[in-house]
Amino acid sequence: MAETRKILTQVDPVWSQIRQEAEVAIAEEPLFGGLIHSSILHHHSVEAALAYRVAVKLASAEMSEQLIREIADAAYAADPSLAMAARADLVAVRERDPACHRYLQPMMFFKGFQALQAYRIGHWLWNEGRKDMAYFFQMRVSEMFGIDIHPAARIGKGIMIDHAHSIVIGETAVVGDNVSMLHSVTLGGTGKEEEDRHPKIGNGVLIGAGAKVLGNIKVGDCSRIAAGSVVLHEVPCKTTVAGVPAKVVGEAGCSQPSVSMDQLLGQ
């Protein structure tokens, strides 16, 4: 058993850490034993555990847990990048969210992380031409988590969605790697045109709570969008924008605003 754990740690340290934290959680709260075993310890990998969690959360009278689990398993088997992105998302949440003290927390309790992983499966379905099933995933994510991400949207890895209530990301939106956003963010359009109509968010961007970024505009790498801002025009790299409508108010304040999570203007 010890040798197996050693190999697991070398191959997948994130999964090994999650399993260790799961065992500690059961020791601290025995009533969680069944939940933790079924969600974490019963599985052999991050992929298997995520497939189970997504299926449990999205299942309904319309679509059984077993069917959703089979879809999720197929997605992870066909596209290894899904699980790699999930690992990067886990690390992002653990490093950036001061309320997160263990990798186990996002897996079990944080709807932003869970909704993002369900979206990733829906996006895989969309790319496979299974659009109706992708729409079903979008619908259930919206119903269960209060987050509406179109399955055609393209989202990078290392994403943290903090609190995550009322997030809306439109069909032609693109979100780069290592982005952090807080609750009530909208990446939307400005009308009913059907062409490319949603924002393109660069790498390392921090989007504050309640910010609305509208239209086919580019938000440059490592920039900050202040809480409550309405962004209608391009945002240069490494700058801070604020206001309604948003204007440049200074530099970003650091090289990685999405990691520092510093939201104070003038910093």
Model description:
- This protein is an alpha/beta fold and 267 residues long.
- 45% of the residues lie in helices and 15% in strands.
- The chain has 2 domains: 14-146, Orthogonal Bundle (serine acetyltransferase, domain 1), CATH 1.10.3130.10; 153-266, Hexapeptide repeat proteins (UDP N-Acetylglucosamine Acyltransferase, domain 1).
- The chain is built from 10 helices and 15 strands.
- The chain has a 6-stranded mixed beta sheet. A 5-stranded parallel beta sheet has the order 1-4-7-10-13. Strands 2-5-8-11 form a 4-stranded parallel beta sheet, with no helix packed on it.
- Helix 1 (2-11) crosses helix 2 (13-28), helix 4 runs antiparallel to helix 5 and helix 4 crosses helix 8.
- InterPro entries: Hexapep, Hexapep_transf_CS, LbH_SAT, Ser_AcTrfase_N, Ser_AcTrfase_N_sf, Ser_O-AcTrfase, Serine_acetyltransferase, Trimer_LpxA-like_sf.
- Its EC number is 2.3.1.30.
Concise structural overview:
It catalyses: L-serine + acetyl-CoA = O-acetyl-L-serine + CoA. Helices cover 45% and strands 15% of the residues. The protein has helices spanning 2-11, 13-28, 33-41, 46-58, 65-78, 81-96, 104-108, 111-127, 131-145, 257-260; strands at residues 147-149, 154-155, 160-161, 167-169, 174-175, 180-181, 186-188, 200-201, 206-207, 212-214, 218-219, 224-225, 230-231, 239-242, 247-251.
